């Protein structure tokens, strides 16, 4: 399996705290069957001011440490980039790294406030040749009010990435409901761990892969954790990727309800 979203680099965001912790997380990923992992620390202006240079240097150093520790995990660089008005400029100048140097990159919307121009920014990015992968929309607190926007940018060509823990129920019934709905509607391209720590947010994918397989079949699950992620790393065109799979059964549409609880 290939994990395209993990906060493995030590000491630069809210992920791995130090090298020892990063190596422990890497072992967890390897033992779960992950062979390639994208180090994607937050780029969040004013909070995590990471740059492509910082991230690439960190990946090179950690890859050396993995070799010393006899952990055969292959690392690639990326970032979990928070939405900003000048995102396109930062991608063009290389300040925001794409995934393994491809046209694909992780696009993180604000967690608690629906951004008024998110669709416009995504359309601009798509027109420039980038493919934003929207990270964990199922966990956004505003998805009930703006699900139509998620669907709109999906139809325009943006990709959707679910967190494995949302699929398995680790983040509660709300995130699991939206995960299952988007899976059943055929709107999910990738499942990734969004691994942060050894407690609730471990870098694992095998259980989520099996949950997806139960809903959509084994091949659809492999496409989300192996085939499409490999295509991203190789910078394959979206048109050359496997087609998305919808559920055979009709998607349940429960009455609208208000969800409570925080993002994490």
- How many domains? 1
Helical proportion, percent range = 25-40%
Radius of gyration in whole Å, from Cα? 17 Å
Structural class determined from secondary elements: alpha/beta
Low-confidence stretches: 254-264
Give the strand order, joined by hyphens, for the main sheet: 3-5-6-7-8-9
Just give the CATH class.
Alpha Beta
Order of helices and strands: EHEEHEEHEHEHEHHEHH
Largest sheet: 6 strands, parallel
Strand content: 5-15%
**In total, how many beta strands?**
9
What number is the mean pLDDT? 93
CATH fold assignment: TIM Barrel
What CATH architecture would you give?
Alpha-Beta Barrel
Query: What do we call the CATH homologous superfamily?
Result: Metal-dependent hydrolases
* Termini gap: 25 Å
Global morphology: globular
Q: Please, how many helices? A: 9
């Amino acid at each position: 399996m290939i994990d395209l979203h993990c906060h493995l680099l030590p000491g630069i965001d809210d992920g791995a705290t130090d090298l020892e912790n990063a190596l422990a997380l890497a072992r967890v990923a390897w033992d779960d069957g992950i062979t390639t992992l994208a180090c994607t620390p937050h780029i969040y202006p004013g909070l995590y001011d990471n740059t492509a240079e910082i991230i690439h240097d960190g990946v090179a150093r950690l890859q050396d440490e993995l070799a010393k520790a006899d952990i055969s995990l292959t690392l690639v660089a990326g970032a979990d980039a928070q939405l900003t008005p000048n995102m396109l400029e930062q991608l063009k100048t290389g300040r925001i790294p794409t995934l393994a140097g491809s046209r694909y990159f992780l696009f993180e919307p604000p967690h608690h406030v629906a951004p008024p121009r998110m669709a416009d920014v995504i359309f601009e990015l798509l027109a420039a040749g980038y493919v934003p992968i929207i990270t964990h929309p199922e966990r956004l607190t505003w998805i009930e009010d703006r699900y139509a926007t998620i669907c709109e940018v999906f139809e325009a060509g943006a990709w959707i990435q679910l967190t494995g823990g949302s699929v398995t129920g680790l983040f509660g019934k709300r995130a699991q409901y939206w995960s299952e709905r988007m899976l059943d509607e055929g709107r999910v391209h990738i499942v990734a761990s969004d691994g942060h720590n050894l407690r609730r947010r471990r870098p694992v994918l095998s259980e989520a892969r099996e949950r997806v397989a139960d809903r959509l079949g084994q091949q659809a699950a492999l496409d989300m954790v192996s085939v499409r992620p490999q295509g991203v790393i190789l910078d394959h065109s979206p048109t050359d990727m496997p087609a998305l799979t919808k559920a055979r059964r009709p998607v349940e549409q429960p009455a609208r309800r208000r969800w409570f609880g925080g993002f994490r």
